[in-house]
Specification:
Helix content is about 70%, strand content about 0%. The protein has about 80 residues and is an all-alpha fold. It has one domain. Helix 1 packs across helix 2 and helix 2 crosses helix 5.
Length: about 80
């Protein structure tokens, strides 16, 4: 997953705001699985993600943009 994919789904400004959130929900394995399950249908996925509470949406953006993986690997997103 990439920043470009996140920008295409929600727009760069929304992605910037979500990535700047200081207290996103944790990116748990369960949330990663749930996120991947929705990816087959971009429209449904976008709607589902936007319906989440802000901290959880921020975590989803971190997963889709690759920022969560970069953090785990010790690199800046």
């Amino acid at each position: 997953m990439t920043r470009q994919a996140a920008d295409a789904l929600w727009g760069a400004e929304a992605v910037d705001a979500a990535l700047a959130e200081l207290a996103p929900a944790p990116t748990t394995p369960e949330l990663e699985r749930e996120t991947r399950a929705y990816l087959a249908s971009p429209g449904t996925f976008r709607t589902w993600a936007l319906a989440q509470p802000w901290p959880r949406f921020c975590a989803i953006v971190r997963i889709v943009s690759g920022a969560a993986l970069s953090e785990v690997m010790g690199h800046d997103g």
